[in-house]
Design a protein that fits this description.
mainly alpha; about 325 residues; single chain
């Protein structure tokens, strides 16, 4: 009997890893923690900007280095807390791309090769500024949308490059003799048409073209219609579609985060596991006592109350 009680107690009691994960998860999901990390990221960005003033660096070199080390220590503590928050399920930490990005930025800072290279170190410090997207949901959605729109953007670039090449060749054939500054070679023609894609200087280009031939109006009108309206609208459509997909992905990720266990209220899944362990222990005890006692009478007393309490807890859940 005491042995079964010990087994029930061991099954019900949370492990040290679970306690550590619950405590660190409570800290990392707190609002004050997010605001503190966000403030440290902004302070790191300010420090990086101050280092562009040589006079200020010479005067406050020691204090700036101390502030940089303080920011690095804060980021290290943050990533350790986030890793400890997934101590009960370590794989969940690697499933979040932002966790991988934060860990890579922090670990690269401690690499000897990186610490000796000032340029790479400054670029890594600049990468920390991108971590603000972790605490700004809208910015995070935009970055994810930009990433998802890259395949469609590559297709858009291929079509745009083909359109530029065709119109550049046509422009070189008709305008190279009269306007060598803009259409003297295929490279100059592509550069001219690329700038005209933004409609900057289109009026001057049309006027100069009309002095050469009236057909230049058709040339520029068709190019502006295809390049500045059709292709740009296609690119906007690709980005908007990716933005909607990123919003849906972010909404799908929110419910699992909301269901992460916290001390108050207690984790329902963990409580159900404890109840199931207690039920299995009671069944084992019943099978152990059944041969000696004979048919089991209806449960009364402490055992019956215990089973009723377990059933009532399951009913409330």
């Amino acid at each position: 009997m005491p042995q079964h009680q010990d087994q029930v107690a061991e099954a019900i009691a949370p492990s040290e890893r679970q306690r550590l994960a619950l405590y660190c998860r409570e800290v990392t999901e707190a609002r004050w923690f997010a605001l503190t990390v966000f403030a440290v990221i902004l302070a790191n960005a300010v420090l990086l900007g101050l280092e562009t003033y040589s006079g200020l660096v010479e005067e406050w070199h020691g204090w700036l280095r101390l502030a940089e080390h303080a920011c690095l220590a804060a980021f290290t503590v943050e990533i350790l807390l986030r890793m400890a928050a997934h101590a009960d399920h370590p794989r969940d930490f690697w499933r979040d791309p932002w966790n991988v990005f934060d860990l890579a930025v922090v670990l690269c800072t401690f690499a000897p090769v990186v610490r000796e290279n000032t340029t790479v170190l400054r670029l890594l410090r600049l990468a920390r500024v991108l971590r603000t997207a972790r605490f700004l949901p809208q910015l995070r959605i935009v970055l994810v949308a930009v990433g998802r729109s890259l395949p469609g953007t590559l297709s858009f670039l291929l079509v745009g490059a083909l359109l530029l090449y065709v119109y550049a060749m046509v422009g070189w054939v008709f305008f190279a003799r009269y306007d060598p500054e803009h259409y003297g070679s295929i490279g100059r023609a592509v550069l001219t048409l690329f700038l005209l894609m933004t409609l900057d200087g289109i009026g001057d280009a049309v006027r100069d073209g009309l002095e050469i031939s009236r057909w230049s109006l058709l040339y520029y009108a068709s190019y502006v219609l295809l390049a500045s309206f059709v292709l740009v609208n296609v690119l906007i459509g690709v980005v908007l579609t990716s933005l909607d997909e990123a919003k849906d992905m972010d909404e799908e990720r929110e419910p699992p985060r909301a269901r992460r266990p916290t001390p108050e209220p207690p984790d329902q899944q963990l409580l159900l596991q404890r109840i199931e362990a207690a039920r299995r222990a009671l069944e084992d005890l019943e099978r152990h006592l059944a041969p000696a006692v004979g048919p089991t009478p209806p449960r009364t007393g402490e055992a019956g109350e215990r089973e009723q309490s377990v059933s009532s807890v399951e009913g409330r859940l």
